[in-house]
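Quick start: read one record
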Amino acid sequence: MSAKEKAKAKAEQVMGKAMRKTGHIRGKKTTEIKGAALGLRGKARERKEKAKDYFTR
């Protein structure tokens, strides 16, 4: 897993979690949902990179 892609995946997860919390506190459902989607995209990116590393060995 390249360091750049790993950092990008982790940043998306952190930003997604922050957006979810902010949306929940402010009562904005759309922001909360967008944050959840961003977090899931980060997790998917991380899993993709791990799978790529597994098959290149």
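The mean pLDDT is 92.
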